[in-house]
Design a protein that fits this description.
single chain; mainly alpha; 7 helices
């Protein structure tokens, strides 16, 4: 910690007479930035298996909603086992999103006709199948 404070003194041309408050603020800002960069890199690395495969509209919808909170233009639920498999692959990469699948189910029920302009296979039928697939994969591994 002392070394980091000394580097900040040097980096910003500060003398020992300066208050520690701005120095500590700068230190915490740099630590926060470094942590955010590390988390961002780790997140992108964890997505490689999904990005490497065939990214479908439904898995992209999950990604966009979970990562940004924005409602994607195409918000259709998976239409077959291939679509569902791409969702499973994504959720294996980012398992902390699994408990949040209920948000997509609830959101879809509220906006499905507005966003898609048509009836689509509801997420509330697909999400249990996605979760079942994820549990099945864990049972096969364990």
């Amino acid at each position: 910690m002392k070394e980091k404070i000394e580097k900040i003194f040097e980096k910003y041309g500060l003398s020992k007479e300066h208050s520690l408050t701005p120095i500590l603020s700068k230190l915490f800002e740099e630590e926060k930035r470094e942590t955010e960069d590390r988390v961002r890199r780790e997140a992108m690395t964890s997505l490689v298996p999904w990005l490497d495969g065939n990214v479908g509209a439904s898995s992209e919808a999950i990604y966009l909603y979970m990562a940004t909170g924005k409602i994607p233009r195409a918000f259709d639920a998976p239409s077959d086992s291939g679509d569902r498999g791409r969702c499973v692959t994504l959720l294996k990469c980012v398992p902390e999103w699994i408990p949040r699948l209920k948000e997509i189910e609830e959101l879809h029920l509220e906006i499905k006709e507005i966003v898609t302009g048509k009836e689509s296979e509801p997420w509330n039928e697909q999400i249990p199948l996605i979760i079942q697939s994820l549990k099945g994969d864990k049972n096969e591994q364990g």
